[in-house]
Amino acid sequence: AKETGRNTFAFFQQDMQEISDRRLLHEKSLHRAVSKSEFEVYYQPQNDAEGAIIGAEALLRWHDPEHGFIPPDEFIPLAEEIGLIHDIGSIVFNQAARQVAKWLEEGVWQEGWRISINVSPLQFLHPNLLADIDDALRESGLPASAIDIEITENVLMADSELALEKMAQIRKLGIHLSIDDFGTGYSSLKYLKSLPIDRLKIDQSFVRDLINDPSDRAIVMAIIAMADALDVNVLAEGVETQAHLDQLKSMRCFTYQGYFFGRPMPAAQFVELCNKHQAH
Ligand code: C2E
Ligand code: CA
Ligand code: CA
Ligand code: CA
């Protein structure tokens, strides 16, 4: 057992070294990535109970020329740490707004659909956020009402007063607001009541075992009931199977996102998906 312990520790140390090497490498390349804009927005459809598209979530991809594809879960936290998240946020807003405005013009994107854009807590509280969004809207000509900003409950942690004020300002612009990963963050039932939000997104961790795990089912049911009581929409994430869909429908959740409907995909592929839907 002792032997195993030591090996485990050595392994752990090596692991940590690798992680920090990788980090340093990434830190340098992330600066370059921002200046050269090596980012691509992918689009994942959001669907209603009939399977119709109701919008998409913008999910960022970084194609590093040396190290290949780096997932957002890895570079977003790093970007926050080294102060690049605001530049990256602007890139996402500009790219997505321009793309969706073009699609609207071409008739690919339907009026009433929403493009969901992730905004991290740090980004959300930054004084330039509204100006950046405004720039993206004016430059693209996209109406504010086509945008849905996804924030997590954690925005309330640092400065809840400021966060509430920001939310109100965003809503005043006509932009929609969703709470992402609902149920996993800083639980704030106290605030939830007063939050100017349109939608709760049920975290995929509760959906994954929905069929077999009664406690996940109870949680999802509670979230749906709460959304109903607060008069906000509810969307389930991580819908991967027909069984997930059927279960959610029976629980009166009628909007979804997940591999069952489509993975996050490049813009060109999203156009194909929309065309296929229109053909039906
Ligand atoms: P998120 O906002 O919760 O996004 C949903 C994640 O779940 C995405 O991972 C998506 O690819 C994945 N997903 C969607 N459907 C399914 C499904 O049916 N099954 C499973 N297992 N997974 C599914 P992705 O694209 O790797 O993004 C990870 C996280 O990175 C996002 O989580 C979000 O927090 C962050 N992120 C992505 N793009 C941006 C961005 O532009 N700005 C900021 N601030 N964060 C971003
Ligand atoms: Ca999200
Ligand atoms: Ca989420
Ligand atoms: Ca997440």
Structural class: alpha/beta
Order of secondary-structure elements: HEEEHHEHHEHHEHEHHEHEH
Level of helix content?
40-55%
Cofactors and ligands:
ligand C2E, calcium ion
Radius of gyration: 20 Å
Please report the total strand number as a whole number: 9
Mean pLDDT equals 92
Number of helices: 12
Question: How would you explain this protein's 3D organization?
Answer:
- The radius of gyration is 20 Å and the shape is globular.
- It has an 8-stranded mixed barrel, surrounded by 5 helices.
- The protein has 12 helices and 9 strands.
- The longest helix is centred in the first third of the chain and has 35 residues, at 2-36.
- The relative contact order is 0.11.
- It has helices at 2-36, 72-81, 85-106, 121-125, 129-140, 155-158, 160-172, 189-192, 204-207, 214-230, 242-250, 267-279, and strands at residues 39-48, 53-64, 68-70, 114-118, 147-152, 176-182, 199-202, 233-236, 255-257.
- Helix content is 53%, strand content 19%.
- With 280 residues, the chain is an alpha/beta fold.
- Bound molecules: ligand C2E and calcium ion (3 copies).
- Residues 180-181, 201, 203, 237 line the site of one calcium ion.
- Residues 23-278 form the EAL domain.
- It comes from Marinomonas piezotolerans.
- This is cyclic-guanylate-specific phosphodiesterase.
